[in-house]
Amino acid sequence: MLKKLITGCLLGTAIGDAFGLPYEGLSKQRQNKLYPNIKNHNFIFKKGMISDDTEHSCMVAQSLIVSAGNTSIFTKQLAYRLRWWLLGLPAGIGYATLKSIIKLWLGVSPHKSGVFSAGNGAAMRSSIIGVCYNNDIQKLQELVRASTRLTHTDIKAEHGALAVALAASTASQQLFISPQIYYEKLENLIGLEQVEFLSLIKQACNSAQLQETTQIFAAKIGLSKGITGYIYHTVPVVIQTWLRYQQDYQTAILEIVACGGDTDTTAAILGGIIGAAVGKEGIPQVWLNNLWEYPRNIKWMESLGTRLAQVCQQNTNQSSLSLPIHGVFLRNILFLLIVIFHGFRRLFPPY
């Protein structure tokens, strides 16, 4: 069962990421003009590719396999993987994450490498922690904090990452949760003093209770043109959508992507949460079939999920699942060329 949940989370993240990637940075209005009828991947020849959102989730999974939940080892492992990940020339890396990894390369301790930022970097890689430690809230909190502070020191980033991990933890328990119960759980987890964030999540929960569309809720909190990469914008919208579509992966992804903005990250985070509930079987088969990816392909992520499930069940670490360095580098060069093509395409009509 745990294997299904972990694999569903990883694949849910990957497919959401790939599905939302072609529209990243587009306003809702421009997206409607360029892509009026979104049903399948549109990155290259109706195929999809993943971005840093999925890669970070996979690195967290690899670090959990080697550390078996030991927070100190986990931190060192994730720092190690982030350093070498940067040498693969990933496209679209966040500014805070880039600065943090450079500090790591300069010899700064993983405990001091983070920069003051409230971006989405930590939230986009926290779902898998929530799934693996859904029965140990203290360990969940420790690992999310370690993962967050490695790159982001603004407490807002940690709040957002915890909210996502808690949602994935809840989803993986295969139970429908009411917006009110989720809010109470989060309130207990992060503390009543976090007024601003709790107020936003409360609005998200109330909106979900009223069954408002994602676009209506986004407009209510000032995001009518698109969801930004600010953690206090992204996470409330993701939570509102998840609470309404806890077992409906496809509808949820389509709805949040239609909001525009940071579409790959919003869809990746949402996909990881719902994927933990529905498993691979709940993700549209055509979207899985059209993921055009190497070396982090479907088969590799399933193997990663299997190994991580074994570690979590046996509480014994294993060696991590490796990736061919040359394959990563060549893949990233191709990926960058496709991203550049999309950039040029956006210079032309329809406007």
Tell me the layout of helices and strands:
Layout: H1 2-20, H2 28-34, H3 52-67, H4 71-87, H5 95-105, H6 127-132, H7 137-149, H8 155-172, H9 179-190, H10 195-209, H11 214-220, H12 231-244, H13 249-257, H14 263-278, H15 285-289, H16 298-314, H17 325-345
How would you portray this structure in words?
This protein is mostly helical and 351 residues long. It is 64% helix and 0% strand. The protein is built from 17 helices and no strands. The chain has helices at 2-20, 28-34, 52-67, 71-87, 95-105, 127-132, 137-149, 155-172, 179-190, 195-209, 214-220, 231-244, 249-257, 263-278, 285-289, 298-314, 325-345. The longest helix has 21 residues, at 325-345. The N and C termini lie far apart (48 Å).
Biggest sheet record? none
The helix/strand series, from N terminus to C terminus, equals HHHHHHHHHHHHHHHHH
How many separate helices?
17
Number of strands: 0
Distance between the termini: 48 Å
What is the helical fraction, as a range of percent?
55-70%
Shape: globular
